[in-house]
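Continuing the batch. This is chain 6 of the set; chains 1 through 5 are on the previous pages. Same settings as before, nothing changed between runs. Recording input and output for traceability.
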Amino acid sequence: MFRLVAAIAALSFAMPAQADWHVAESDHFVVYADDSEKDVRRFSEMLERYHAAMEFVTGREAETPSPSNRVTVYAVGGKRQIRELAGSKNVGGFYIPRVGGSMAFVPDVRPSTGELEWSMTILLHEYAHHFLISSSRYAMPRWMDEGSAEFFASARFPRDGEVHIGRPAYHRSAELAFAPEVPLEDLFERGRHRAGEELRRDNFYGRSWALYHYLTFDPARKGQLLAYAREIAGGASSIDAARAAFGDLGQLRKDLDRYLMQRKIKGFVLQPEILPIGEISVRRLSEGMSEMLPVMIRSKRGVDREASAAVLVDARAVAAAYPRDAGVLAALAEAEYDAGNLDAAIAAADAAIAIDPARKNAYVQKGYALFTQAADAEDETAAYKEAMKPFTALNRLENDHPLPLIHYYRSFAERGVEPSETARHALDRAAQLAPFDHGLAVNAALMHAKIGNIAAARQYLTPVAANPHGGSAARQAQVLLDQLENAEEGTPWRRRPVVDLTRALSSIARSVAEKEPQQAEDGDEANRPE
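Output for chain 6:
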């Protein structure tokens, strides 16, 4: 995790005088873009067909997310804006998994029918991770995780509605040709990149794609990839699973090298009739929201307290010009909360709700502010009861919104009161709705460990610990798994973890509410331009 410097957070994205911001909403995505209705719709259709293609190829059917659990894509302008927003010169686009608000940031919408722009490839790569995590509960080895994401990210979208999956990963061709080769044993055994380690400049990503592609299409290897996955799910190590499923690894290397020398390789050409997608609605944003959106993008990306002051100046200026726009006022409430102005955040949220009682972000920001105030209240019971009211109203608007479920559990844990069974079920449900949020999974595991559900705790921790992009959550998950190694099922876990258990349980949602900047996919070379 890193902090954006105030100068970066204070920037204002250059926007044309006649901005034409649209929002497209579909089953799995929300797209904001300063572009024509036609292009924004086409872009959204591409993303939905991509999701349908992954379901078809993998045979997995992910649960349709609740509206607030969809991935929101912000098209922020050009490459310069992306790099400023990310705080890095080597980022072409990035994705942040967050319960109740996963986000992707790309330069602009480019519904291409040919080879995709690098930023679009990055978006498809990251959404492949999102889809695979959301549709499976077992931990994939790193090569399989990255190889599958590369396999899907090389997609193409002709105008006739077809989707081409499994095409050559041309963006990895130079890497495969010139970078040092990764031996297969190392490919299978390599884990996640650790903080402080130098990134290896080899062909790991390209080699992972090649092996995944080969095992998918070569007739002689039919069924072996599934057998490997089953071995992993059964608890085998990656290298042992490889030997069991693939046989002699030396022969596998030779076969893979021959496969890569072919002039042509297979791919899936999926016809539009087998990739049905739901309705896509596109609307032009109000004048006020068009002015506020660049401010919102900076806020959603994540700001520290110093940077939030600069964002707040712009948010207040827009809100003063559009005092009757509920979306603008809800965004102002978020900016006020980020800056620590709790009463002002509540007032702005109330004003937004008075205009539009269905404005969900207003309930979220009011709830965040009330929870923060409740921590210092003399009558904690009454304060947390009041703090739950916005989340209860939000739950009525969207039954599967994860934040009310998390905060219901938190209303017990923050007071040091043993959570009720209903509260535990609420946290479990939130973790099921947002399996891509690693911090939530770790805290759900802690909850289960505390009451003796050791197997459930391990089930939550294992995918997080194995995730190559898990960062501090992955490290914490591995430590907790090590400590749970000899724990007995049915016996409450009393061993002292690295962090105090009570404090960890009481901060389940705080990291979501206090949305500090996060580095997306730390150490992922897929975010690096070729």
